[in-house]
């Protein structure tokens, strides 16, 4: 049986200032017959790189969770999937001018902003009247 324990220790070196943080990460891996100890020094640059990568991952996940496409121009199948409509309905939106599009080499592209504008323009708010 192998167990792993992580310890994190953050400190500043004397006369180095607050910006020069070092992280000392100690891994203790206990195996049945012996124990191994590894030490890894992580610099401020490593921490900055990790922070940037983490922020990018969080932004990407938030876009996925919110259902927003990550690109500006969408192809027909992406628009149909996003709106949950059939190819015929998408064609009707094109033909009657409700949804602008761009055609490049036989491929139809739709601007994400135009899709949002169309949804806002066709937004209905039902009012429920209550008796006094």
Question: Order of strands across the biggest sheet?
Answer: 1-2-3
Q: Bin the strand percentage.
A: 25-35%
Overall outline:
elongated
Task: Estimate percent helicity.
Answer: 25-40%
- Secondary structure category: alpha+beta
Q: Overall mean pLDDT score?
A: 75
- Counting DSSP E segments of at least 2 residues, the number of strands comes to 6
Q: Could you give a short account of the major beta sheet?
A: 3 strands, antiparallel
Distance between the termini: 72 Å
* Global Rg: 27 Å
User: Tally the helices: what do you get?
Assistant: 4
- Count of spatially separate domains: 2
Report on the structure:
The chain has helices at 44-66, 76-83, 87-95, 112-121; strands at residues 3-12, 21-30, 35-42, 73-75, 102-104, 107-111. It has 132 residues and is an alpha+beta fold. Helices cover 38% and strands 30% of the residues. It folds into 2 domains: 1-44, no CATH class; 73-121. A 3-stranded antiparallel sheet has the order 1-2-3. Strands 4-6-5 form a 3-stranded antiparallel sheet. The model is unreliable at 1-31 (pLDDT under 50). The longest helix is centred in the middle third of the chain and has 23 residues, at 44-66.
């Amino acid at each position: 049986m192998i167990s792993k324990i992580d310890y994190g220790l953050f400190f500043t070196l004397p006369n180095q200032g607050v910006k020069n943080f070092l992280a000392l990460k100690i891994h203790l891996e206990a195996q049945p017959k012996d124990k191994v100890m590894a030490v890894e020094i992580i610099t401020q640059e490593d921490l900055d790189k990790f922070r940037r990568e983490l922020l990018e991952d969080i932004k990407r996940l938030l876009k996925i969770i919110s259902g927003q496409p990550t690109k500006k121009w969408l192809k027909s199948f992406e628009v149909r999937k996003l709106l949950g409509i059939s190819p015929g309905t998408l064609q009707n939106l094109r033909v009657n001018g409700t949804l602008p599009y761009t055609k490049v080499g036989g491929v139809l592209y739709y601007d994400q902003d135009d899709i949002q504008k169309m949804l806002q323009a066709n937004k209905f708010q039902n009012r429920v009247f209550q008796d006094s």
